[in-house]
Every structure is written in structure tokens, then in C-alpha cells.
Amino acid sequence: MRVTLDGSPLDGSAYLTVVDLARRAPGWLDGAVSVWSSSGLVVFALLMAGAWWRARRVGATAAMLALAAPLVVLAAYGCDEVLKLAVREDRPCRSLRVMTLEACAAPGDWSFPSNHAAISAAAAVALLWVSRRIAAVAALAAATMAASRVWVGAHYPHDVVAGLLVGALIAAAAITALRRRPEALVRRITAAAWLRPLLSAS
Description:
Elements: H1 8-24, H2 27-39, H3 41-55, H4 60-87, H5 92-95, H6 115-128, H7 132-151, H8 157-178, H9 182-190
Helix pairs in contact: 2-7, 3-4, 3-6, 3-7, 4-6, 4-8, 4-9, 6-7, 6-8, 7-8
């Protein structure tokens, strides 16, 4: 049987401080943070859809990069999952045996790195090459998503920081690779008549 890791020596005290703050916070605040933590990823999907709709009016290359954003997010999620399986860090609520806003995950649902943080950071970075304004909104949303995961007790601070880094690095690498020869990708997409509307509003 493989050994599982206990991440509490790294920043368990900081985690407990945040969880204690959440326990003493007004109910409306905890409720709002919990809803954002559990359902906020939908906002990133909407931001990517909005960025694509806008990019179709900018040009084929911008639209192609916008279309790539969800795929980049999936790649970041996949890499994050691989890291989870490799590291096998127990959830803090399990290691520290503390009551949290979010129900403690089942054994085997590892904590490091945070999937929510990786997904939100990947979306924010991928959108940077499509629309700086939308990317700024996504970056703010990613930061609050990462913070919310600690607030509800799902992750240590180091889990969400690592998730943000994983998502950002994977997205930056993927989009940089796509931008090296965008014309070739655009030609492949527009070669199929039924795909052309994906890259142009006309």
C-alpha cells in the first residue's frame, strides 16, 4: 500500500487560522463563499464563451486562440490530476480532523494540487491572448476561487498556490505553442465549410 502524505507541517497553522475565521464569519458570507467555491467554475466557461464570441469579430487567429482556451483548460486539469495521483496528499480536513464548511472529501480524493485553482488559472492565462479585459476579470476570479477553496476547508494554502502555478504554466506553454504557427491551424479549421463560422462573425 502506497504511503499518503500529510501536508499539515507546511502550512497547517495558516489553514487552521482561515478555517477558524470561516467558522466565526457571518452566515451570509460563508454561504456566498461556499456557492462560489462549488459552482464558480461555470463563470470561467462563460468568460471563455464570451471571449470567443468577441474574438470572431477581431480575426480568425484570435478566434482560434479563443476556441483553444477550453482545450488548454482540459490539459491543465489532466496534468493536475496526474500530480494528485503522484503526490497523494490527504485532504487537510482528514489530516487535521477539523470541521469545515465543505464536507470532507472521501479517502483517495487527494488535495495537492487544487483542481479548482488549476482550472481557473489556466482559463485566465489562456484568455490573456484573446482579451486582456476578460483575462483581468478571469484572473481576479481565479484568485478568489483559490482563496475560497481554503476558506471552505477543502485545501491547504500550498495546494491552491501549486494549482494556480500548474494551470498558469500549462496554459502559457500551450498557447505559446499554438501562436507559433496560427495560420496553419486557421487554414485547417476553415478548410471545412461547416467550421468556418467558428472563426468569423460574417
